[in-house]
Amino acid sequence: TIKRPPENPPPRPPPEARKK
Amino acid sequence: GPIILQTYRAIADYEKNSKNELAVSAGDIVDVVEKSEHGWWFCQLKNKRGWVPAAYLEPIDSPDEPEEADPNYEGELYIIITGYTADQDDELTLKEGESVEVIHKLLDGWWVVRKDETTGYYPSMYMQKSGEKS
Q1: Chain A residues in contact with B33 (beta carbon < 8 A)
Q2: DSSP H or E segment with residue B113
Q3: Is the CB of residue A19 less than 8 Å away from at least one CB of chain B?
Q4: 20 to 30 Å CA-CA from B44: which of A12, B20, B29, B98?
Q5: Are B22 and B31 in contact (CB under 8 A)?
Q6: Which residues from chain B sit within 8 angstroms of residue A12, using beta carbons?
């Protein structure tokens, strides 16, 4: 069973993601 | 036939903030069960399951077709259903009921939107396509 997604938006991409 | 789940790698540590989320550490390999349009992906890690931010995941074997849609500079009309105050300087502050043009729908759930002359990021979860019932 897939639980309900969180109500708040996800965080912005971490610094590691922006290095790309 | 068997359901083949897509495998992703966590690129950074992520701490849970709510009950249904899944904490991951950089380098963890997860199977993605479902991708929500708002940047949360339901993942499986060993015997644990929960929602992980797509922004923290990268594909293991680069998929043949790009996952992200191309930008649409004409813009698609959306209505703000939940107000939000910018936390970073590349984000927008908008109020419920305002309309915006969506330019780029990014997988991490933060879409590029335009309001009059200003462009910036806004949570897709807080917007709804104009003319659609929630």
Answers
A1: 2
A2: strand B110-115
A3: no
A4: A12
A5: no
A6: 55, 87-88, 108, 110, 121
Write down the pLDDT at residue B81.
Answer: 97
The pLDDT tens digits for B24-43 are: 999 999 999 999 989 999 99
The residue type found at B106 is: L
- Residues B56, B11 contacting (CB under 8 angstroms): yes
Q: Which residues on A lie below 8 Å from B121 (Cβ)?
A: 12
Which residue in the block uniquely carries the two structure tokens 């990268």?
A: B58
pLDDT in tens, B62-112: 666 677 889 999 999 999 999 999 999 999 999 999 999 999 999 999 999
Distances from the Cα of B51 to the Cα of A2, B80, B83, B90, B131, angstroms: 9, 24, 23, 25, 29
Distance CA A16, CA B11 (A): 7
Residue A19's contacts (CB-CB under 8 Å, 6 or more residues apart) are: none
Enter the ipTM. Answer: 0.88
Summarised one tens digit per residue, pLDDT across range A9-18 is: 999 999 888 6
- Between the alpha carbon of residue B87 and those of residues B64, B93, B105, the distances in Å are 35, 9, 19
